[in-house]
Amino acid sequence: MDPQQEIQQLQEQLVYFKKLIKNMSAPIIPSVVPKTILVPIAGFIFTDRFEMIRTAVLEYAEKYRDTERVIFDFTGVTTDDLMEFDYNGLASELSQLNSALGLMGLRAIYVGFNPLFVREIVHAGIQVELEVYTTFKVALEHVLNESKKSVPKI
């Protein structure tokens, strides 16, 4: 294979893997609780990724109009580069995400924030109004108790 063909093949692979990463960055999972979806967030979080998440959730809500609640699970977020993390940027992204979802009539619920992550946000003096629970299970239980329902049998 000549170098030009090899470069072309590598560029095509790069495009493929970028698309794959984009699709995996914000999976949307319908919950057993009616009108509720789960968006698990794992790995590193950054501005472009929040934009993808916001877009994916808003497009889902447009398609599935009966959706009322979105639970974002941050349990899998990596905090390896905590000292280099932009907490003001995160606060801004969370605020924009909340505002966008609110305008669509969706209730945003956040779970699974890492204690170290929370400490750094508080230490940075960042204020963001969010509905937060410790785990996905606790959030679902709260939503079920509000609606006085139980988990449907599968």
Architecture blueprint of SSEs:
Elements: H1 3-24, E1 29-30, E2 36-43, H2 47-63, E3 69-77, H3 87-103, E4 107-111, H4 115-123, E5 131-133, H5 136-147
Parallel strand pairs: 2-3, 3-4, 4-5
Antiparallel strand pairs: 1-2
Helix pairs in contact: 2-3
Structural summary, described in words:
- The chain is of the alpha/beta class.
- The chain has one domain: Transcription Regulator spoIIAA (2-Layer Sandwich).
- Helix content is 50%, strand content 18%.
- The protein has five helices and five strands, in the order αββαβαβαβα.
- A five-stranded mixed beta sheet has the order 1-2-3-4-5.
- Helix 4 links the parallel strand 4 and strand 5 (131-133).
- Helix 2 (47-63) packs parallel to helix 3.
- The longest helix is centred in the N-terminal third of the chain and has 22 residues, at 3-24.
- The model has no long low-confidence stretch (mean pLDDT 83).
- This is Putative PAS/PAC sensor protein.
Task: Briefly characterize the structure.
With 154 residues, the protein is of the alpha/beta class. Helices cover 50% and strands 18% of the residues.
Features:
154 residues; alpha/beta; Transcription Regulator spoIIAA; 5-stranded mixed beta sheet; 50% helix
